[in-house]
């Protein structure tokens, strides 16, 4: 058979990317899972009311006969929401960094979270959006439009979508959307209080009834993102080489970005815009796993869940008997980390 008649070969597995030794990855994965289990136990134990171990165990079996058991029962959905939201943001950040090959990519920095926030605020103020499903679809639409807009702006000019241009376009878009949110909310005193509280970003007040509508969107986002790992490995080799290996570059980017947008939009709809989780976690996970996305994406999901859960626990301890929302705590952690990345990476591509 001639070369012209040969069928198009499937893209070989681009697994052998430079990274950490494979033998250490299972160890770090087990350590991360154990740390996450410990954080879950702390999350249901720590709050404004001290709870005995017997009450914790009884509440986990469904009993709510005492005040302590009722307190633990209220913390369980909050813990679950922190786990899901943190995993979604950590995974979305890793996917965005892979899609854009930008070490500064993050749902907050690129304006995706603020795009979802603006869409929700406009929906509530102008179109009287009230149902949970409408909130989620509106947030996902806003996240998708914001991601498309930032990528289009960052692609203009010589050199295409460079990390620096994407970061600047995302930062400018985020500031502009934040100003628009204020402009929409200011004349509406009837919704201003709730919107301002939601915009800080938090997991307080969670319930299983609030969680159930968002679960299908999060599960779809998790599935699409994790299944994109092999394609992200190919994209990491460069567009030309990935295309030469048989990868459809535009389609691979679009599918992976769709998973990240679903995760960001659904998380913003239920928690509000929470920043820096998607920036911090993938960078830390690369120190443990290397750049192979088949390992990096699951690690980022677990790491994001752990970071957001730890931030929620810290917010309960620092301001007792009041609480700090996780959006405030992650900002304290993420802002210095962002400055460190800029100085260390000098805004190079991944």
TrEMBL record:
> Where does the record say this protein resides?
Cell membrane
Q: Which domain of life is it from?
A: Bacteria
The annotated topology with respect to the bilayer is: Multi-pass membrane protein
Record keywords: Cell membrane, Membrane, Transmembrane, Transmembrane helix, Transport
For this protein, the record's InterPro entries field holds: ABC_BtuC-like, ABC_transptr_permease_BtuC
Q: Which residues cross the membrane?
A: 27-46, 79-96, 108-128, 134-154, 166-186, 250-275, 295-314, 326-343
Q: Which SUPFAM superfamilies match?
A: ABC transporter involved in vitamin B12 uptake, BtuC
Q: Which family does it belong to?
A: Belongs to the binding-protein-dependent transport system permease family. FecCD subfamily.
Name of protein: FecCD family ABC transporter permease
Instruction: Tell me the organism.
Output: Ancylobacter oerskovii
